[in-house]
Structure formats: C-alpha cells, structure tokens
Q: What sequence folds into this?
C-alpha cells in the first residue's frame, strides 16, 4: 500500500455517537449490595452478552440463561465471559460467583446494543446506516465516541512521560466514508486482497467510534505491521490496556478476525476487559473472549 493510500485510510472523521453507557457506563458496574461483587452484563451482539465481574483472583464466575451456561476463572480480580441470550430482548441471567448467586438483567435490543462499549462488529456481524454516533468528542486530530476522550488523553500523556510521542490519527468513520474507502482499495487491488486489510461498509469498527489508529509522531512504519517493532509500537503493546484499549487484530489471528495484523489499531473495551485480556495471553481476539464464531470471511 502506498504512503498516500495509507494516509487516505486514516483520513476523515466526522459526525455523531454514543448514548450514556449502560448501567455504570463501563464494564465496571456499581455494587447493588456492598457484600456482592461487581457484576455487569453488556450486549456484544443481538443475541450475546458479556458478563464482567470483579472478584477475587482465582475465583470462578459462572453465568447461565436458559440452557446456555458458561464459566471463567478470574485473573487479577477480573473475570469475563460471553453468554448466549434471547435475541433483541431483555433477559435475566443467573450469576454465581464468590459464594453468591443472583440474577442480573441484560438487554440486547437495538438501543442497548448501540450504547454498549463491548459491541462486536466483524465480517459476520454488521452495522447499518442507522448505527451512527450521537455524542462525539474531538481529541487531538481525531473524532471519537466521547467516552474515549479521557482515556486517549491519559494514554498520550503517559506515553510522553516515557519519552514516546504517541498520536491518534484516525477515529470515527461513517458508513458512507468506509464504503468509499473500501471501493478504492477494491478497484486497485481486487476484492480478495482488499478484504485482508480493509472492512466493507457496515463491518468496520471505526463506525462504532470506539476505535483509533495510532502512530509515533515521526510516522515511522505508520500503518505497517512493522510498527510493532518500533519504540512506539512496543509501548502501545505493553501499556494500551492500562487505558481500556486492546490491539484488536493481532499477528497469527487472521483465521479468526479475517484481517492481517494491525498493531496500530486499538479498540476500546473499558478497563476491566482490557486488563483481563492483557493477563490472559492465550485469548487474543474478542471473538474468542466472547465465545463467538470465527469471522475470516463474509
């Protein structure tokens, strides 16, 4: 990909997103009772939720709804699991953790899904034209969901303290912008090649407003896999989770995500989920974390 085309890929941000976050607004729900662990259920697709719990390290989180049941062991006081629930509906999930058993209400209807910071979009799960941002913030040179404003600012400041000049260079992209961008790649390289590095309209995480592309101020290896070997890329890999971000498309995961490695592409998932994934090095994709099918193709 030429430098000019790479810069086209990070150009253009614009328009509206984000209602208030579900519950506490992050995957860190307030306690309903001081003696109970933090537990929250956030929708990830129209028929699946993420159950996130703050519990003692090594404790087991169990969740069930109807015939579906899943469990996960906490690491560093966080446990995260994916659970199938009724499609586009309210559901009641039974949660067992730390010698307690209780029910939590979850919602996978359209509006709840649109406000969820854990919403999944991939080659199997699409967005529509109606999935547009409503509340945005301008952070540096990019426009993002307003929930990302403080995490991005804190991450850039932390990097600067470590003598890394980090920049966010692409944020929200509309359905129409992604459609135009993908079409340009398809004309140039053909559909098969374009699908390995660009999302078709409705399948881009950038449309959520919860994703940023980053680079070093020197633009060395910008939007290249070799970015991971630069001081900036190494810092991002080591510290992005401290601010609620994960590297979404990792090396060797093409058969799950459908994309080549993108060490510059950061997806916001909130502090708890990001911390959990950083500790669980064996879980490298959100599809794996939430028990979703691999999405290597459309």
A:
């Amino acid at each position: 990909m030429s430098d000019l085309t790479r810069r086209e890929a990070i150009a253009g941000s614009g328009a509206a997103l984000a209602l208030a976050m579900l519950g506490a607004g992050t995957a860190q729900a307030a306690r309903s009772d001081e003696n109970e662990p933090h537990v929250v259920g956030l929708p990830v697709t129209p028929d699946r939720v993420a159950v996130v719990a703050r519990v003692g390290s090594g404790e087991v989180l169990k969740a069930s709804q109807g015939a579906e049941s899943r469990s996960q062991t906490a690491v560093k006081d966080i446990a995260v699991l994916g659970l199938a629930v009724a499609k586009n509906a309210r559901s009641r999930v039974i949660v067992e953790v730390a010698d307690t058993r209780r029910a939590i209400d979850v919602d996978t209807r359209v509006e709840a899904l649109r406000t969820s910071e854990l919403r999944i979009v991939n080659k199997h799960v699409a967005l529509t034209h109606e999935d547009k941002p409503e509340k945005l913030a301008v952070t540096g040179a990019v426009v993002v969901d307003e929930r990302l404003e403080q995490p991005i600012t804190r991450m850039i400041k932390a990097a600067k303290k470590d003598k890394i000049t980090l920049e966010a260079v692409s944020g929200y992209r509309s359905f129409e912008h992604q459609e135009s961008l993908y079409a340009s790649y398809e004309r140039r390289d053909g559909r098969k090649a374009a699908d390995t590095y660009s999302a078709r309209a409705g399948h881009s995480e950038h449309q959520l407003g919860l994703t940023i592309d980053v680079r070093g101020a020197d633009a060395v290896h910008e939007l290249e896999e070799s970015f991971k070997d630069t001081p900036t890329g190494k810092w991002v890999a080591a510290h992005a989770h401290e601010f609620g971000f994960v590297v979404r498309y990792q090396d060797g995961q093409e058969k799950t995500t459908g994309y080549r490695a993108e060490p510059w592409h950061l997806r916001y998932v909130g502090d708890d989920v990001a911390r959990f994934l950083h500790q669980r090095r064996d879980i490298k994709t959100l599809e794996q974390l939430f028990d979703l099918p691999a999405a290597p193709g459309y």
The first helix runs from residue 3 to 9.
